[in-house]
Amino acid sequence: MADVLVIVESPAKAKTLSRFLGRKYIVKSSMGHIRDLPKSQLGVEPENNYEPKYITIRGKGKILKELRESAKKSKKILLAADPDREGEAIAWHLQQVLNIKSDEPCRIEFNEITKGAIAEAVKNPRPIDMKRVDAQQARRILDRLVGYKLSPLLWKKIRKGLSAGRVQSIAVKLVCDREDEIEDFVSEEYWTITGQFGVSKKEKRFEAKLFKISGKNVDIKTSEEAGLIVEKVKGKEAHISKVTKRERRKNPAPPFVTSSLQQEAFRKLNFTAKKTMRIAQQLYEGIDLGKKQGLTGLITYIRTDSTRISEAAQAEAREYIINSYGKEYYPQKSRQYSVKKQAQNAHEAIRPTSVFRAPDDIKANLSRDQLRLYKLIWERFISSQMASAVFDTITIDLTVDDYIFRANGSILKFHGFMKVYIEGSDNTEEELEEGILPEVAEGDKLLALDIIPKQHFTQPPPRFTEASLVKTLEELGIGRPSTYAPIIETIIARGYVQRIQKNFQPTDLGYLVTELLDEYFSSIINVEFTAKMEEELDKIEAGTATWKEVIDKFFSPFEKLLDKAENEIGKIELEDEVSEELCEKCGRNMVIKMGRYGKFLACPGFPECRNTKPIIENIGVKCPQCKAGDIIIRKSKKGRIFYGCSSYPECDFVSWDKPTGLACPECKGFLVEKNSKKENKIVCTSKECDFVDDKAEKETKGDKVNAH
What are 581-601's pLDDT values in tens digits? Predict the structure, then answer.
C-alpha cells in the first residue's frame, strides 16, 4: 500500500514526478479534466441560478475507476495539477469524485518540476482554492452560454458547423476590421532626399537625410518639389552646424511570458502558437536526459503573464554570467522587470529550471524543435539578467542655406546582453557598424557632392500575423495566456480567417458572421466588454465578486438580444463563387469553397457528385526540370506555399522559392526569387554558383516606409 497518491494531468509529468518522489508515493495521471459540461446539451441551468451539470468525460471512466482504486489503497491524496485556474478546477473535480473532504489540505502546486520544488510542494499542501475554481467555472459557463446559444442561431440562419465565442468572435472582428482599413487606405506620394557629402569627389563621402527646411519638418509631395530642392542644394558648400556625441545604453528584453514566447517563436522559429505551447509543455513536463539525470523538467510553468524571477534563479544567472562572460557582463544590481497592470502575477516568468543546463550540453537528448525552443527560452532568460549594451552615437547636422541635413551614426562599444540574444532580430556587429561617420567638428566645410531624391508611397497597416494578433489581444486585455493558441486554431478551423503567407485574411464567411454579430450583439461582442469581463473574472479569483452574480449580469441582457435576433434575422444564403472550371464527372461549373487549408474547387452537385480538386494558380513559368509542364502554386499540409510542376507525378520538381523563368548569366542554372523580411533577391539555385542579383533588394529598400 502506498502512503501517498499523487495525481497529475499527464503521463509525462507523472513519470518526471515519480523520479523525485520515494517509494511511499505513487503518481497517477488523470489525462487532463476528468469531468466537464456535457457536449450534447447546454449543461447549465439559468433558471436554477446557473447551476452547472458536470458529467464524467466520455472515455475517462476507466481512468476514474483506476484512480478510485488507488485512492482506496492510499493513506493520503495530493492533487498536483498545473498551478493555474484550469489546474485548480481539475483538482477540485478530482476532490469531488474521490470524496476528499472540502477542507482537506490536498492541493500542491509548483512552478517548476525540479527536486527542490517538488519536495517543497509536498511539505506544504493546502485546501482547494475555491475562488480560483469559481473564476474558472465562470469562464467555462460564460463560454458555454455564448457558444451554445449563439452557435445554433448561426446554424439556423447561415449554415451548420459554425460557432461564435466571447473571445474568438473578437479575434475575427479584429482581422476583418484590419482588412477594411487596408481596403479603405488611400496611398499618398511623398519624397525623401539624401545628400552625399565630402571634402572632394575623390575623398570618402557619407550620407545625410534632409531633416528641416527653414526650420520646419520636411514634407515633399511631388517630384517637382524634390527637383527644385536638388537644384538649389547640389554642388553647394555645406557647413557642419552641430555635432552631438553621446553614449547610449540599450537594455535587454524581459524574460518570456506566454504571449511574448508565442510571438518570438513565430518570428524567429516560424512556430504557430499551438506548436509553441505543445513543445513548451513537453519541456516543462520533463525530457529524458539519460541515465545520470533521467526525466527532467527543463523550463518553468508555461502559462504565465508575469516577468517575476525568483532570487534563487537570479543567483544562478549571476554565477553563470560572471563565470562564462566576465564580471563586466553582469549589471551592478540584479534586474527585476515591472509587471503589467492586468497581469495576474501568479507565477514566475518562463525560464530554464537551471541555467547550467546549457542548450549545447543537452542537444543530443532533444528533438530539433525542442532544442530550438529551449535555446530561445534559455538565451532570452540569460540575456535578461545581463548588463546593458553600450553604443557610441554621433549625430551630425549639415546646413546648406535654409536646408538642414542630418546623419546618424552608431558603433557598438560593449556587447552586454547582445553577446547572447537580440529580441526579434539577429543584427550582427558588422551591421551596426555600417553607420560609422567621419570625425568632423562644428564649422567644418563640406561639399554637397550628390543629392538623391527618392519617391515613396505611404503603406496601409499590415495584416495580422499570429505574433501581432496575440500581441494585440494581450494589449487589449482580451483572453489570458492559456487562451491565445486555441483561439487562433478555432478561427482558422471554422473557416473565418485564412492564413496566407503567414498573414491572416478574413473569408467571406468570417465577414458575414462578424457583420451579423456586430449588428445584433455589438454590446457584448466587442473589445471593451470582453476586456471588462476578464477583469470581472479576476475579481472572482480575488474574492471581490461572486461567479453567479457576474454571469447573471451578462446573461440577462444577452438573452433579450438573442430573442430579438432570432425573430428579426431571416435565412442568409452564403452563395459560393462560381468558377469557369467544369466538373469532369458531371459537367457542372465548379464552385469555390473554403477549407482548412484555403480555397478549393468543389462540384455544386453534392452529394450526388463529390468531385473536388485544388485551385491551380499558374505563375507563367515553364518547369526548369522537364521543360514541358508549367510551374503552379501549391500548398503544404501546414498551409505554406511552394512551387511545383503541373506534370506531377511524372515530374517531381518542387521549390520553396518562386522560379523566375530566367537562366543564370554565369552558369545557366535557373534563378529563383528569395524573399524574406531582410532580403529580396534573385539567386541561382546551383550549389556551385554563388550568383546573386540584389537589384530587387535595392528597389525594396528604397520603398520601405512607415504606415503613417
Answer: 889 889 899 998 866 556 788
> Does a structural domain hold residue 25?
yes
Residues ≥6 apart with Cβ < 8 Å to 516: 154, 157, 158, 569, 572
Output the pLDDT for position 615.
Answer: 79
| 366, 384, 402 - which closes a domain | 384
Encode pLDDT of 619-656 as tens digits.
889 998 888 889 998 877 666 788 999 888 888 899 98
Residue 32 phi, psi (nearest 5) = 85, -150
Residues 324 and 398 in one domain: no
How far CA 50 is from CA of 54, 141, 405, 523, in Å, comes to 12, 8, 68, 22
In order of 639, 643, 649, 659, the CA distances from 633 in angstroms are 12, 5, 15, 11
User: Given the C-alpha cell 495576474, which residue does it identify?
Assistant: 344
Q: Tell me phi and psi for residue 495, to 5 degrees.
A: 80, 20
CATH number at residue 228: 2.70.20.10
Same domain, yes or no: 108 and 44 = yes
CATH of the domain at 55: 3.40.50.140
* Residue 522 sits in the same domain as residue 555: yes
Domain hosting residue 160, numbered range: 137-184+462-568
Whether residue 433 is predicted with pLDDT greater than 60 in this model: the reply is no
Cell of 636: 503544404
Give the model's pLDDT for residue 633. 87
pLDDT at 698: 37
CATH number of the domain enclosing 338: 1.10.290.10
Residues present in the chain in total: 708
**Cell numbers placing 299:** 523550463
Domain boundary, last residue among 327, 359, 384: 384
Q: How far is CA 669 from the centre of its chain?
A: 38
- 91, 279, 503 from 30: Cα distances, Å: 10, 20, 38
Determine whether 379 is exposed, middle or buried from the number of CB atoms within 10 Å of its CB (0-12, 13-18, 19+).
Answer: middle
Q: How far apart are CA 409 and CA 676, in angstroms?
A: 26
Strand partners of residue 390? 249, 414
Q: Are residues 264 and 380 in the same domain?
A: yes
Q: Indicate whether 312 and 229 sit together in one domain.
A: no
Q: Which of 531, 569, 460 is nearest to 171 (CA)?
A: 531
Bridge-based pairing state of the strands 670-675 and 497-500? unpaired
Q: How many CB atoms lie within 10 A of CB 319?
A: 13
- 585 DSSP assignment: T
Which are the catalytic amino acids? Answer: 301
- 321 vs 310: CA distance, rounded Å: 17
Cell 488523470, residue located: 30
Beta-sheet pairing, 55-56 with 51-52: unpaired
Cβ-proximal residues to 59 (8 Å cutoff; 6+ apart), any chain: none
**Are residue 178 and residue 196 in the same domain, yes or no?**
no
Same domain, residue pair 400 and 516: no
Helix (H, G, I), strand (E, B) or coil at 110: coil
Task: Examine residue 293 and state whether it is found in any structural domain, yes or no.
Answer: yes
Same domain, 310 and 217: no
| Cα separation, 299 vs 282, whole angstroms | 9
The x, y and z cell numbers of residue 700, run together, are 525594396
The fraction of the chain above a pLDDT of 90, given in percent, is 60
Rounded distance, CA 580 to CA 544, Å? 62
- Enclosing H/E stretch for 148: helix 130-157
DSSP 185-249: ----EEEEEEEEEESSSSS--EEEEEEEETTEE--B-SHHHHHHHHHHHTT-EEEEEEEEEEEEE
- DSSP three-state, residue 37: coil
CA-based nearest residue to 509, from 241, 154, 87: 154
- Residue 650 in domain: no
Q: Taking Cα atoms as reference points, which of 407, 394, 445 lies closest to residue 194? A: 407
Kindly state whether residue 651 falls inside one of the protein's structural domains: no
Domain total in the chain: 5
Cα–Cα distance between 167 and 26 in angstroms, integer?
39
User: Above 50 in pLDDT, residue 43?
Assistant: yes
